[in-house]
Design goal:
This protein is an all-alpha fold. It has 23 helices and no strands. Helix 17 packs antiparallel against helix 18. The model has no long low-confidence stretch (mean pLDDT 84).
């Protein structure tokens, strides 16, 4: 059987199983087993077993459940509410200030949590009622929450970076630092957009109330103490990585301790919350690992059959130049992001695209940042943007899913602009990793 026909059968089988409703992990795993038996017979099954055991022995994978557990603890520690209340007091007096406060709060939470979804649910419960009650148009209120929540994909300690580092074989610490400037740049673009739009369309966001204007400066400074714990947790994770004091797994452990201290200070460290956090961590980790195992097995079989070599040779031979190949990769990621979650896209495409980019002389840390930015785009892209569905679960029934999707288009455009800037100027992502301590 020719490798071209085999590639077609791989893709067709994969799409049929996904459309039939089979979970992605089991779709990839079952295809890997069937094609292994067909191509190599029963002895070939040892390939799948060996790849799974190799992954299970990777020490860096320990950081994944630790970061997820840290996120689950922080979600119940009252940190997000404290951050929003503090930032709201300082920024809420400008027109559109509550929406700006949402973006800043999400950026700060992203620097601690690293797992998408938590910020959107929290801001949907805490910030959305505050904005709607003050007369904000729902278009502005919904859009800033969806866009801000997606920052956890790019701002470290993002779990997406961990998986990219494992798959591409690059330093997770450098990946984390590479995401800082693009993440802050994108948050700044969101804030600038909100401020400019609210000045051009004042009806979107009423001016601050008399109650907000009457808050004395001493009270504002007093509220800043609520940012000390979040800042300490973020520094414990990112600072230890940047200064070379800790590996990603050790930094994740530091983050867990910081999260539990923060929960204890806020009197939220109860056995009930810990049990819920452990249960949620177990579910998410098990899902991620099964996806990792299934996709790795599928790519292993396809590689052994010669499929990845075919794709790599085809892409490097395209008459579009190296940067054209990178743009094609972005387009593939964007299209896949409309239908498949990030972990499936990563594990199915990275083993193919990473050697291509490496052969063309591109930095794989930079490519990892581009991947995260694409997954951030997929996070709010219709028809299956997870951010919209997360938010829909906590908004009033009067707000439809169409309302949420209609609100995200300006932010989606800004994400494409930011992606174009990082492609055009790689040092936006690579400058900070170049300053790291060894």
């Amino acid at each position: 059987m020719s490798i071209t026909l085999l590639s077609f059968l791989f893709v067709a089988s994969f799409m049929v199983l996904l459309l039939a409703g089979l979970p992605l992990a089991f779709a990839t795993g079952s295809i890997a087993v069937v094609f292994t038996l067909f191509l190599f017979g029963e002895p070939g099954l040892t390939l799948i077993v060996s790849r799974v055991f190799t992954l299970m022995g990777n020490y860096v994978l320990v950081s994944v459940p630790l970061f997820i557990f840290m996120a689950c603890i922080l979600e119940r520690a009252g940190i997000a509410e404290a951050i929003f209340n503090t930032v709201h007091v300082w920024a809420g007096q400008m027109r559109g200030g509550l929406a700006v406060a949402v973006i800043i709060s999400c950026a700060l939470m992203a620097a601690m949590v690293g797992v998408i979804g938590a910020e959107i649910v929290t801001m949907g419960v805490v910030a959305l009622p505050a904005m709607l009650n003050r007369g904000y148009k729902k278009d502005l209120a919904l859009g800033c929450i969806c866009a801000g929540g997606g920052l956890a994909t790019l701002i470290p300690p993002s779990v997406v970076f961990i998986m990219w580092g494992l798959t591409a074989g690059v330093s997770i610490g450098q990946l984390y630092m590479a995401g800082v400037v693009p993440g802050l740049m994108l948050a700044g673009m969101y804030i600038a957009y909100i401020i400019v739009r609210c000045r051009l369309q004042p009806q979107l966001a009423p001016p601050a109330s008399a109650e907000d204007l009457a808050i004395p400066l001493s009270q504002k400074f007093a509220l800043l103490k609520d940012l000390l714990l979040p800042s300490a947790v973020a520094f414990g994770v990112l600072g230890s990585l940047y200064l070379g004091w800790a590996t990603p797994t050790e930094a994740a452990g530091v983050g867990v301790i910081g999260a539990m201290v923060a929960a204890a200070v806020n009197r939220r460290l109860t056995w009930a919350n810990i049990k819920i956090a452990i249960a949620d961590t177990t579910k998410v980790t098990a899902m991620l690992y099964w996806l990792f195992f299934g996709s790795s097995a599928l790519i292993g079989v396809y590689t052994l059959a010669g499929g990845t070599r075919l794709i790599q040779d085809t892409m490097t031979g395209l008459p579009v130049g190296p940067i054209g190949v990178i743009i094609i990769i972005q387009l593939i990621w964007i299209v896949l992001g409309c239908f498949i979650d990030w972990i499936g896209i990563l594990l199915l495409t990275a083993p193919i695209f990473v050697p291509v980019a490496s052969a063309l002389g591109f930095d794989l840390v930079w490519l990892g940042v581009l991947f995260c930015m694409n997954m951030q785009i997929s996070y709010i892209s219709p028809p299956f943007g997870p951010a919209a569905f997360y938010l829909k679960g906590v908004v009033p029934k009067s707000i439809s899913l169409n309302d949420i999707f209609a609100s995200i288009w300006p932010y989606l455009i800004l994400q494409f602009v930011a992606l174009g800037l990082v492609i055009s100027f790689p040092q936006i992502a690579l400058w900070l990793p170049g300053t790291m301590s060894n």
